[in-house]
Amino acid sequence: MKRSIWRHPFFLTGFIFIAVLLIASFAYSFLWGDEVRKLYYISVDSVPVESAPISPKWEFPFGTDPLGLDMLGKVIIGAKYTIIAALAIGFLRVFISLPLSFVLGVYFQKYRKYYNGTVDSFHYIPFSILAYFLLYPVLWEPFEGFSTSMPERFFIEITVLTVLIVPIISSLLGNEIAHVYKSEFILSAQVMGAGRFRIILKHILPAIREKLVILFGQQVMQTLIVFIHLGLLKLFLGGTDVDYQLVHDPPKSMTMEWSGLIGDTFRYLQGAPWVPLTPILFFAATMFAVALMMEGYIQATSGYSYYGKRIKEKVSRVHEEEDRKIKNGDFTRV
What we know:
It is a multi-pass membrane protein. With 334 residues, this protein is mainly alpha-helical.
């Protein structure tokens, strides 16, 4: 039975988690700017017993970094940059790919196989590596300093990460739209005199609405994963601050966005694991929240479980392969 997505516990849980993070991030920056609490050492009876990086405590639930800065405060400050950039890239990928996919699936069906054959080659190119080489001249600070402002670097990075994946998404959506276009209800609409534009708006678009929501969620999660990869390669969202002094500090993030917090502190994974694991935990929690919203939306609008359906399909494929192996093994050569 269909019901409002705002009453579905899965969708509501994921939405509240992301909304709370964004509201907390903007409120923190509005009240305290980018100032983060510091704790250099803990003393008992005037005797230092622990120095930065300090392990998680009640007042500092995620501990501090090697400079004594509160990890929770840094994650909250960077949440707005990371989440909004991922949502914007995911939305732009689907929004730009949709009209291209309609052209491929409705108007130029005879040329779709050539387009798909060309786009298939992109699947063999590591997306994160390609993005790294394209974004390195923009995000890595040169010796003389950046020639672009931070909003310009954000715009360029969002544009590059969007445009690189548009051909693949348009190919996938074009195949889906071409399949829907051959359905019986589309043929009935054509017999009744409906034009292609009306068929797109009134029939095809409602038919693929759920797939668009799923695709949007998948692209948001893929973007977050790409952020992690670029962070490990020291290429941070908004720009990498590079110190060129004789005794230089490691490259660091200029906005405290989460990929920068991972790349800047990953070397402490063994000595102070809470430092890099804190942003990794928030990355994972955000992706899980997006997955909950996808699942809640599908269950509320269609009445079935998206992930449950995928699991059943995988199980059925495994059983089919096992049955095929058994049938092939029934014949022995004599």
